[in-house]
Amino acid sequence: MYNKKSLHQPLSLFSQWFEEEQKVSEVRIPTAVCLSTIGLDNFPNARFVSFKKLVEDCLIITGPLNSRKGIEIENNAHVALTFWWTATERQIRIQGLATKISEQLADNYFNDRHVNAQAVSTICEQGKETYDAQQLEKRVLKMVSDKTKITRPQNWGGFSINPTRIEFMEFKETRFHYRRLYERENGEWQVKQLQP
């Protein structure tokens, strides 16, 4: 179940669990992850986003930089990610620091998006109040129907999350859940077994 390397390298264990979930998951968006940020009013904010991939031991997410999450991360880079994987009954909680990804990487992720998602990101200001949703939708549908290449808006990008703490939890029928906490200290991962 756990290879020797993964027991000392939490991101190897993360990759192993993620791959195992992808093989058996039947949910429509198996890459969904809950991103938590610190609000400008000091209340936590949480929402689901799409996890892209691991790049140099950092987790990549994308979205509008001028959305609430983007503004909150710009104000306070301390974030948390929570994965809940139904098929394998596993949870992973990650805390870390977020930094903006490069323009080139943002272009790559934007170009990989479905054209509808590209149009929505170009036309809409995510999370802002609207007084005419139908008009906005018409503009999005027109952009899609024009079938011209949509370039990434400057306010769309992503974040690379460098983890400092990762907790793995595997649910058991006995309720004696497996919990292992990794914390980075002086550049090295330290691991603790936690009580269920």
Strand order in the sheet with the most strands:
1-2-3-6-5-4
Helix content: 25-40%
Q: Which architecture per CATH?
A: Roll
Text of the CATH class: Mainly Beta
Unreliable sequence segments: none
Note the main sheet. 6 strands, antiparallel, barrel
**Beta-strand percentage?**
35-45%
Number of domains: 1
CA gyration radius, whole angstroms: 19 Å
CATH topology: Pnp Oxidase, Chain A
Assembly level: single chain
**Helix/strand structural class:** alpha+beta
* Cα end-to-end separation: 19 Å
The total of beta strands comes to 8
Task: Provide the residue-averaged pLDDT.
Answer: 93
Overall shape: it is globular
> What is the name of the CATH superfamily?
Electron Transport, Fmn-binding Protein, Chain A
Please count the helical segments.
Answer: 6
Q: SSE order in H/E notation? A: HHEEEHEEHHHEEE
Keywords: Flavoprotein, FMN, Oxidoreductase
Pfam family, one: PNP_phzG_C
GO biological process, one term: pyridoxine biosynthetic process
Enzyme class: oxidoreductase
What does this structure look like?
Strand 4 and strand 5 form a beta hairpin. The protein is globular. The model has no long low-confidence stretch (mean pLDDT 93). The protein contains 6 helices and 8 strands. It has a 6-stranded antiparallel beta barrel. The two termini are 19 Å apart. With 196 residues, it is α+β, with helices and mostly antiparallel strands. The chain is 31% helix and 38% strand. It has one domain: Pnp Oxidase, Chain A (Roll), CATH 2.30.110.
Can you tag this structure with a few keywords?
6 helices, alpha+beta, 196 residues
